[in-house]
User: Fold this.
Amino acid sequence: MLTASHLTRRFGDRVAVDDLSFEVAPGEIFALLGPNGAGKTTTLRIAAGLIAPSAGSVRIGTEALSPAAGPRLRIRIGLLTETPGLWDRLSVRQNLRIYARLHGLTDPEEAVDRALDLFALADRAADPAGQLSKGLRQRVALARTLLHRPDVVLLDEPTAGLDPESARDVRELILRLKSEQRAIVLSTHNLDEVERVADRVAVLRSRLVAVDTPQALRARLFGARVRIDLAHPAEACVSALGAAGFADVRVAGATLSVGVTDHVAATPAIVRALVGAGADIEAVAAERQPLEDVYLKLLEDDGARHGGHGARPQ
Assistant:
């Protein structure tokens, strides 16, 4: 649905995006991660057709996003900026109506009514936008982004500054968009949010550092591990695991962490070895390295590869 090919964007001597390529399929949530100045917002602005790349291209479906095709293709794109401006003196309905007309919708009032209902804003339609809470303003901005039912949805920090309830509502909306087969690109610093919704993640530092599913990135960096919680100190069980062929064993009190190739295939053998050694097992689970650790490790390794100059100041 959305294809970015070798995108580069320079602002004078600064390189904000450097030879970046990725694809986002219908029904996929693709998260952009990276430190401040890594090029995430610039990438979204290029994908939305707001700025042109210095090199490279963006395709929506099979068609390239170009100055000539831009006005026609932008109707298929919805962009939520990090600081979505609303006209504070205008009502919620008036804000949405303006954008419905700008998009050239054949029945702008019907589109506005649909958006008000979808985002539970009908009872606030007459309220001036300036009187709304941050959570409600974000809900209006999201309604505005989706007024024209775009195929591609670009979200820049959609839950930044929201209370937990409002953030949950936004996440549920993002998952609903996925179920409707929209292609969604999400830029955020909220790694817990990424863990909850993203199918794949791309870590940027102007260039692409890594891209894959969170699970695949974990396995690549840390390997697969099985965690076993015992009802007693675990040190005495290490030899039994070694005899069963498990050499990579870490002990922390009553917990064992065993390195494996495939945790599903290895877990029964681990349990058999421990039970045979008289262990009292309380819990067994695949060990999941926090996504934060994965993200920081990728940036650390990238910095080491590039002599500590992986990030370009923006």
Summary: The chain is about 35% helix and 25% strand. The mean pLDDT is 90. The longest helix spans residues 164-179. The two ends are 29 Å apart (CA to CA).
